[in-house]
Amino acid sequence: MDQPLIFAGAFFLPRQSKAYAALLSCREKGVIYLECSEADISKEYQQGDFTLSPNIMGLPISFQFEDGSVFNPDISSKTALLEWSHSYRKGKWLEWIENRYKALVLCVITLPIIIASLYLYGPTLLSRVTTPFIPVSIDELVGDKTLFLLERVDLSESNLSKVMQNEIKKAWHDNLKKLNVPHQASFKLLFRRSEIFQNNAFTLSNRTIVMTDSLVKKMLSNQQAIQAVLLHETGHVIFRHNTRALMQSFYTTILTSLILNDLETLNESFIGLGTGVVNSAFSREMEKEADDFAIQSLKQLAGSSNGFIEAMQVLGEAHVRHHKETWFESLFSTHPPIQERIDMANEP
Ligand SMILES: [Zn+2]
Fold first, then answer.
1. 3-20 residue pLDDT tens
2. Can you give the residue ranges of the Peptidase M48 domain (predicted)?
3. pLDDT tens-place string over residues 17-75
């Protein structure tokens, strides 16, 4: 706008009904200039010094000033006035963006980081904080249910001799006693044959550890390695990792449904809570926690963590010979790489 728009109209002083003839010139960026010789007024107003009345059909648009005075332009100038007010409002919006573009850019960059951090750390932290409040009876219920399902799908009676089974169990219970593990009387160890798990051991939330026959056979010559595996699983039991993993996946689902505003997913997360245990894999952080427990316990019991290193070597060899993990196996194993675990055991 090069030339100001000039409108004639009536000017009213605050709380007065007398109309004075006046001229109003509208300039760029919402600056106006009022001239009313009858009332001896000649003044410039900036944005914010005045408000425009809403656009109501059939009525003129009026300018209301902070001191209560009013200017009513002639109704014939309404269209031109509206155009001017739109253009200066558009300019106002651009100016607003210009003033805040740094903040906007910062928002655009930081928002995905905030969401990603929420995803990465939110469920982990929440599950850590809330797991102690989950009643142990729920752990037992979920663990019993999972064992029942696994026994129907895959696990079958062990072929190992009772003598061998009892020897391993006794050594493990003796270790728990020496380590003064709380609630150790309720800890259970089962030996089972498994097509799916092959050379493996895993923990259920009802304080039950399952070790497969084939893993025991791989470690027969090294009882320390068997105890190292059992102590790793004991770590999972002590820290209630099954429940934590379950809560973690539950919070992740809630977070997803909140971000996507999808209430159906939220429903599913409640329904899926009971069955989620089969899908919940321990995080690397939990595996490290269990490894750390096994390593420190072995150092305390045997003076060294060699049993752990040997167990890792057997697992590593078995893993290479076997494959890639089956999908079912991978549900239960998210262990860090073998070498990383051995390095951890070698730390003083
Ligand atoms: Zn583990």
1. 778 888 999 998 888 999
2. 165-346
3. 899 999 988 877 778 899 999 888 888 888 788 888 877 777 777 888 888 899 988 87
CA of 108 to the centre of ligand 1 (A): 39
Q: Please check whether residues 183 and 253 belong to one and the same domain.
A: yes
| Rounded Cα–Cα distance for residues 7 and 99 (Å) | 31
Residue 33's DSSP bridge partners are 25, 44
* Residue 183 and residue 300 share a domain: yes
Phi and psi at 160, nearest 5°, equal -70, 145
Ligand 1 centroid–CA 33 distance in Å is 78
- Distance (angstroms) between ligand 1 centre and the Cα of 24 equals 80
- CATH code for the domain in which residue 66 is found: 2.30.29
- Predicted local distance difference test score (pLDDT) of residue 277: 43
Ligand 1 center to residue 166 CA distance, Å?
23
Q: Are residues 48 and 192 both part of a single domain?
A: no
Q: Which residues are close to ligand 1, an ion, with C-beta < 5 A?
A: 287, 290
- Does any domain span residue 150? yes
Asked if 173 contacts 184 with a C-beta cutoff of 8 angstroms, the reply is: yes
At 156-194, the pLDDT tens digits run 999 999 999 999 999 999 999 999 999 999 999 999 999
User: Within a domain: residue 190?
Assistant: yes
Gap from CA of 290 to ligand 1 centroid (Å): 6
**89 found inside a domain:** no
Cβ 157 vs Cβ 192: under 8 Å: yes
